[in-house]
TrEMBL record:
<feature type="repeat" description="WD">
    <location>
        <begin position="25"/>
        <end position="66"/>
    </location>
</feature>
<dbReference type="GO" id="GO:0035082">
    <property type="term" value="P:axoneme assembly"/>
</dbReference>
<dbReference type="InterPro" id="IPR020472">
    <property type="entry name" value="WD40_PAC1"/>
</dbReference>
<dbReference type="InterPro" id="IPR019775">
    <property type="entry name" value="WD40_repeat_CS"/>
</dbReference>
<dbReference type="Pfam" id="PF00400">
    <property type="entry name" value="WD40"/>
</dbReference>
<feature type="repeat" description="WD">
    <location>
        <begin position="109"/>
        <end position="144"/>
    </location>
</feature>
<keyword id="KW-0677">Repeat</keyword>
<dbReference type="InterPro" id="IPR015943">
    <property type="entry name" value="WD40/YVTN_repeat-like_dom_sf"/>
</dbReference>
<dbReference type="GO" id="GO:1990716">
    <property type="term" value="C:axonemal central apparatus"/>
</dbReference>
<dbReference type="InterPro" id="IPR050995">
    <property type="entry name" value="WD-F-box_domain-protein"/>
</dbReference>
<keyword id="KW-0853">WD repeat</keyword>
<protein>
    <submittedName>
        <fullName>SPG16 protein</fullName>
    </submittedName>
</protein>
<dbReference type="InterPro" id="IPR036322">
    <property type="entry name" value="WD40_repeat_dom_sf"/>
</dbReference>
<dbReference type="InterPro" id="IPR001680">
    <property type="entry name" value="WD40_rpt"/>
</dbReference>
<feature type="repeat" description="WD">
    <location>
        <begin position="67"/>
        <end position="108"/>
    </location>
</feature>
Length: 144
C-alpha cells in the first residue's frame, strides 16, 4: 500500500501491483504537503497548506482529530515510532510536537530563521531532525 497527497486536497491509498485506489480522504481546505502512516498502520497523519495537521482513522474512513497552532502552511508531518506523537514543520518557522493522546501541542521548536520544510524523528529516540529554507539542519531533543 502506498499513501499519497496532493494539490487536489485529497489523500489516497493505493494497492500495488495493480495501482488501484483503495481509499480516499477529504477534509483539508488547501493542498496536502505530507502524509504518513502511524506505525501500527491503523491511522495516518496529513499536513496541509491550510495550516492544519489532521489525524485520520482508516477503519472509520474519516478525520478524527484536527491539530491547529501553526500560523502558516504546514510543510511536513511525521509519526514517532511509539505512535503517540506527531511532528509538524511549518512555513511559520516553527516545528511542533503533538501529543495525539491528549490532543495538544507538547512542544514548539523555535530556532530556524525561515520556513521549516521537513521534520523526522530518528527511530526509537527522542531526537527530531528539521531542515529549513535558511539552509540549516537542526537536531532537537524533544524531551527538553
Amino acid at each position: 500500500i502506498v499513501l499519497t497527497g496532493g494539490d487536489d486536497r485529497l489523500w489516497k491509498t493505493w494497492g500495488f501491483p495493480e495501482g488501484n485506489i483503495l481509499m480516499t480522504g477529504e477534509g483539508h481546505t488547501d493542498w496536502l504537503s505530507g502524509c504518513c502512516f502511524r506505525p501500527s498502520g491503523t491511522q495516518l497523519v496529513t499536513s496541509s497548506g491550510d495550516t492544519t495537521v489532521r489525524i485520520w482513522d482508516l477503519s472509520r474512513h474519516g478525520c478524527i482529530l484536527t491539530l491547529r497552532g501553526h500560523s502558516r502552511a504546514v510543510r511536513a508531518c511525521f509519526w514517532h515510532s511509539c505512535g503517540d506523537f506527531v511532528a509538524s514543520a511549518s512555513m511559520d518557522g516553527t516545528s511542533k510536537i503533538w501529543d495525539v493522546n491528549s490532543e495538544r501541542c507538547r512542544y514548539t521548536l523555535r530556532g530556524h530563521k525561515e520556513s521549516v520544510n521537513s521534520i523526522e524523528f530518528l527511530p526509537f529516540s527522542s531526537t527530531a531532525l528539521t531542515s529549513s529554507a535558511d539552509k540549516t539542519l537542526c537536531l532537537w531533543d524533544v524531551r527538553t
